[in-house]
Amino acid sequence: DVKVTQSSRYLVKRTGEKVFLECVQDMDHENMFWYRQDPGLGLRLIYFSYDVKMKEKGDIPEGYSVSREKKERFSLILESASTNQTSMYLCASSPGLAVKNIQYFGAGTRLSVL
Amino acid sequence: AQKITQTQPGMFVQEKEAVTLDCTYDTSDPSYGLFWYKQPSSGEMIFLIYQGSYDQQNATEGRYSLNFQKARKSANLVISASQLGDSAMYFCAMREAPLSNFGNEKLTFGTGTRLTIIP
What we know:
A: seven-stranded mixed beta sheet, four-stranded antiparallel beta sheet, 0% helix, B: mainly beta, six-stranded mixed beta sheet
């Protein structure tokens, strides 16, 4: 089974702090993704990566950056957390070269910025 | 314009009844894929079923089937014989075929339908 692990289920941070959200997948997937989920808005793509050290902006990249130094790990960074970044963050991975190319998700990190 | 529209914010269904969750989509690409995910209260998104735009038959996976009506641009999820464990949020998503190779992994999600199964 595909396993996507997010380092924290719940996180509380203060405004202005630098925040790291970590995601690890164990299936040698090429692609990794970070989404943000807010009530009534569904999931929105923040960034994705199709290879080590490669990244592409999603629909809402402002205020975020990412890092992919190793194939299995994809980090989301909030350089200076703000209250409007309080949300559920979901990481996903997908194989890359496949017809369906299903995205598999982690359990999510619920971040509160106070 | 919304690319994925789920018009039912919430649904209540009696246990053992069949359920249809609506999803309409908007795309001009001839090649695309449609996905349904389930999100229980634990938070993890669980893949349920996939339909490709060129697939001739409607997709089925156990109790899940996808009622794909291409001309109407709809991809409704049907759950047969609902169970209490089916209570969750359900999301419809679409992947379009872009011009470049590196964008074709992006999924666009709808806002979801919260399904509650009543004993």
